[in-house]
Amino acid sequence: MILEVFGKFSRAMRWEAGRGALSSLLDTLIPPDCCLCGTPAKGGNVPVCGGCAGELPRHDMPACPCCALPTREGQICGRCLYDPPAFDSTHALYGYVFPADVLVRAFKYRHRLSLARFFAGAVGRLPEADVLVPMPLHPRRLSERGFNQALEFARPLARVAGLPLELGGVLRVRHTPPQAMLDREARLANPRGVFACRRRFDGLRVMAIDDVMTTGASLDALACCLKAAGAAEVHNFVLARAGW
Q: Which of 72, 180, 214, 235 is the most exposed place for a label (fewest CB within 10 A)?
């Protein structure tokens, strides 16, 4: 089954790479207007104007170091104390509130792939890690969407951080409904048993990359898979954290 999924994954990745290159070329030839206010581009390939960039809600308030939900003094939250997840920490660029949520949806659903470079440039310094692993998509979902938003964000992030990017080492082997369509209980149950590792991560500090973290169920399942493959630590870095 894993070999069949990998074959589909390889074909989808080739399609994704071609589509991503075409999108980047179009953004270069026709610089995009600001995704938020529509201000005409004034040179360069920047999809968010300076004024709107300054209004984005950075995730810099005191928060649980494990799941990144706000806590009064930055202490670990009760949920993570009671039922610790498989991942070791979570870091988020923005809170998933207006206007960051608009940008993330434009990136994910409207194919504004130039936002990946903007997001990566806004990160600054990544936490310590040995390798980046983007959240995998099932080949069926990848062929429907045409690209993996976590991978598109991870590419420039890896270049900025000077870290290796793992491509194809972790597969999503079971197709599941999109998390955004499910209630909390279904979100928590949805990702169980969906990932498989094709390589070992013995002793490595892995940084899992995703777009939005809501319940954290998918990232928890991914961390379980990575640690079963030998990862010493698994940390999350997400574009936005829901639940403010």
A: 72
